[in-house]
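[job 4471] stage=fold_predict status=RUNNING
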Amino acid sequence: MSQYDYDLFVIGAGSGGVRAGRMAAALGVRVAIAEDRYLGGTCVNVGCVPKKLYVYASHFLEDFHDSANFGWQHQAAPKFHWPTLRDNKITEIKRLNGIYDSLLKNAGAELIDGRATVTGPHTVSINGKELSAERILVATGGWPFIPEFPGSEHAISSNEVFDLEKFPKHAVVVGGGYIAVEFAGIFNGLGANTELLYRGDLFLRGFDQDVREFVAEELTKKGITTRFNTNIARIDKTDNGQFEVQLESGESMVTDLVLYATGRVPNTSNLGLETAGVELDGKGAIKVDENFQTNVPSIYALGDVINRVQLTPVALAEGMALVKHLYQGQQIALDYRQIPTAVFCQPNIGTVGLAEHEAREKYANIQIFRSSFKPLKHTISGSDERTLMKLIVDADSDKVVGVHMVGAEAGEIIQGIGIALRAGATKSCFDSTIGIHPTTAEEFVTMREPVS
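[job 4471] inference complete, writing structure tokens
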């Protein structure tokens, strides 16, 4: 009989922790999973899922407008009711929480409601009780970061934005990452006067430059005010409950809401990791090797808390790889290259592979194929929304090394193209593939001449 209470104790029931715990339990491993907040982690509760639901909601007004030139007549202007969206979202998230609960229990894992802290290489403390485990897995994810400045307590993060009591008439979104860009589109699409502030020259740093510039143009056309090289100096609450925002430039504005989407940090505070001697990097992320093992042999970590690639499917893949390694004897080194990803701004971004600046650093001779056009739908709708598509090719091998798109359903399209890149597709493969007509996606197989 084992000397430990459990074979595997998982701290955090987010995407990676649940996947690892469930797979291990299904193999007969004695698993316990501790969670003190909500099942499913950030993605299910305050991330991917509710965000995508809100993106859907924010696009309907454009759809109503676009439908007029297709013959649909509206007797009255549509009116948005925030509590309906918010409360239906809450119902859906509760349903998903229940599914996660059932998945874990049906697999044989024990779910413990409470905050677990590490007290040693093989021990954790939870709800006033100390438990032992042969291995401990830390999968506590990330946490929104709001810098401290005068009045920063008046700003909200992505944790709070989904459940606002009242929808704002005017919203200020601060940040240059995908969360900031997505929520600027959500607020704008739902009817708020929206301003997006970013301290740098242009948002979405790290993305392809053409994509960044194209998205900035499209957001501006949709009515979002973008302010670059701008930072907030202080926020003061007014007598009527609004907020006066003072910019470092000396300019001020009054708003109903300030959302800070300025990044997420590894959620490693107050976990007791220092007690066991677990090493962290300079950003607070847990250091792990290729098998997700920390410097303490019995303690592992994965997902956003190790700060490699902060994406839900990556955490899921890491969880599966860890279980296969620990309990099935497989050595699986995850390949973090060519991970398809999407930004659900409006229009959407879909991307896989290298950005142009990355490709120029890696390859001596690249070719760029680029197309910008008005999609068929908008030739009648009256909308001036455009689509951008871009292929980056290593001319010496003919391999396609990067694919980027800004347009409707970009994420859906790029998912399939991601498979092609993983399979080593060349530009000749794209050229010899017959397109589906009429679709936007066929443009990827009809771009013949590189741009200069």
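[job 4471] summary: The chain has twelve helices and 21 strands.
[job 4471] exit 0
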